[in-house]
């Protein structure tokens, strides 16, 4: 018997599988399809253990589905545009394109070392012109269908580097520029947006898809739906100020208004005396992030504008303030402040000595605005509220007949209307960056904004640019690139010089895999009709909001345009946890606790790494790496090799019971492993296989080798092992002379008869006479048998409520009781 040499056999089989096109997935109408998708990597340099953790169990699952008779598509590609390429390029003085494609070469090789069933013919790279041509095409479709628009928007801006920053480039509590440490400010820039909010309501529904509770909750919170009312106040000059409130029942208690510092009316309502204070306040407010501004425990600050508004329900003259706890990005950017019933407004009113008037009266308690110590936010009856006095409200805002009555009143008097508000914002896709897909828009002095005609796509990204930061969009600085002619009038015109957010590229990559070189359309409709939707999508929980919301939006928008079908792109989603360092800390270079998969593969082979990653923790939870653990898994694979391949010297015949027991264990394991694969319970798959190997080893010692039961055990064992460890299973399969390839074999069927627990009959004697019989599972413990015997009706009758004098158990045969 040859020795187990993982390096050698893994290389050998990977080459053969590739040469044979074993994992090519083609349309086959005779078989049910299964589209298994795992999140594609960003080509950052090296494949890390997190990639292995996401991908290899996903691969095992895809292989299992294939053995279950599905025609499985399991593609791979690269999310290749993005900021890190530019940063690395600046650091190492290498062109972002060169850096990216070098990394792709390297990572493709590393990916191949996994022995996964990727169909490499379908590889898609989002920075290839044949890919981003279609990213741009989607942009044009969105534009033509009113889903893309341009408007001024607040962005993070470094006043020293003179450039916009991506969210990740703003660092630290005090929000400074990652590059130069200068405090970041907000700036208003003309930007392109996608109308994500149009789908806010639909995105809240997960009907027909099986996504984890956690992801659904994260998305629902991200979308942030609130029911309430829009109410229009007016300034003393007569300008309308609309507010969104979840508590229109407290309208009579609105004693001041607060505008976000960025609110367009601020300038107009501010009086001359207050101007300097207001401007100083605005300057500091623009430096905070929305998250900081919203923090509940933050000291509330603000400034009086000097202006007044009129409360529309009671005609009261109320002061208008600005405060940074009111966000411009939510509701209308203005609020009616009700200090008696809102905690933030209360804190603000106390601090600045503003009036507090209770308008909700709790049962059995009288609120006094002068002495209250906190806002009252519970249920009660409306008071000080004119015509609506006495209306009961639940204090929560939504689902309240009281609130409904208030809104009816507002609507009837033309003061307001029912309104739903969402935290979700439209998707800002403009980036003043080089390494991305150019936004395919031309600005013509005569014709205005003109999309690049589809037959002129892609708008190619030039190579000869200054990508180092200069404060301008690199494409804007190019001497010629932006100058073009208008597609409509032929006159001189200029291109948009911003590129697209790379989340745009990753919103549709699952479609490009279907036909990565197709040049008539983003995908071949035949392939779409066969493969879509994605059946199983696997990847990290960190994508719960951005990517996984964008891709759902993208699909729905395309559905409405007539490009895609169905309501959802991905039917089932599963997230893996995280592999931590041996010290239970997050792996990071600075902690020095990083585990490099390449080293492990060189040392143990890919099969061991795959099996260990499935074994060491629940996949959806992850956990700390353990060097001893991977050693143990490696030893197990060596034992698989020897138990199955090494012949026994002396051949004594196994008895019936041994063989029956072997078959029972095999089919029981098959049953649980099948279920575990379905449920993504990879850790118990590996432990079940370890247990079964022990059983097989015992049976082998007891003479099972060479029997039909033994051959069946080996056959089923290898098939079950194949998705987890594709190389060693293929090698042993071949050494046993079985037909190539194990990965083209069917998943075995459970023999329910064989899997049945063995039942035995135990005689129960009372005072030496047989009185009863128990039929029990043969694996039952002594204590359990004795307890069962004592519970028997007959025994109970003889005992008559007293304890037995003596109870003796002769294993597997009889229980003798003396009463
Ligand atoms: C008056 C009121 C009285 C409010 C009361 C609450 C309680 P959610 O649930 O998050 O939707 N609000 C509205 N727009 C805001 C903005 N741009 N920035 C900060 N706060 C804003 O909360 C909606 C409530 O948050 C609204 O209802 C408004 O305050 C405030 F006893 O209006 B409420
Ligand atoms: Zn024109």
TrEMBL record:
GO MF term list: leucine-tRNA ligase activity
Entry EC number(s): 6.1.1.4
Record-linked CDD domains: Anticodon_Ia_Leu_BEm, LeuRS_core
InterPro entries named in the record: aa-tRNA-synth_Ia (IPR002300), Leu-tRNA-ligase (IPR002302), Leu_tRNA-synth_edit (IPR025709), M/V/L/I-tRNA-synth_anticd-bd (IPR013155), Rossmann-like_a/b/a_fold (IPR014729), tRNAsynth_Ia_anticodon-bd (IPR009080), Val/Leu/Ile-tRNA-synth_edit (IPR009008)
Keyword set, alphabetical order: Aminoacyl-tRNA synthetase, ATP-binding, Cytoplasm, Ligase, Nucleotide-binding, Protein biosynthesis
Domain Aminoacyl-tRNA synthetase class Ia: 424-614
Presence of keyword Protein biosynthesis: yes
Transmembrane segments: none
Catalyzed chemical reaction(s): tRNA(Leu) + L-leucine + ATP = L-leucyl-tRNA(Leu) + AMP + diphosphate
Location within or outside the cell: Cytoplasm
Pfam family of the protein (one): tRNA-synt_1
Keyword Cytoplasm: yes
Domain Leucyl-tRNA synthetase editing, residue spans: 221-393
Motif ('HIGH' region): 41-51
Motif ('KMSKS' region): 586-590
List of residues binding ATP: 589
Residues covered by the Methionyl/Valyl/Leucyl/Isoleucyl-tRNA synthetase anticodon-binding domain: 661-781
Family named by the database record: Belongs to the class-I aminoacyl-tRNA synthetase family.
Protein name: Leucine--tRNA ligase
Organism expressing this protein natively: Thermanaerothrix solaris
Classification of source organism: Bacteria, Bacillati, Chloroflexota, Anaerolineae, Anaerolineales
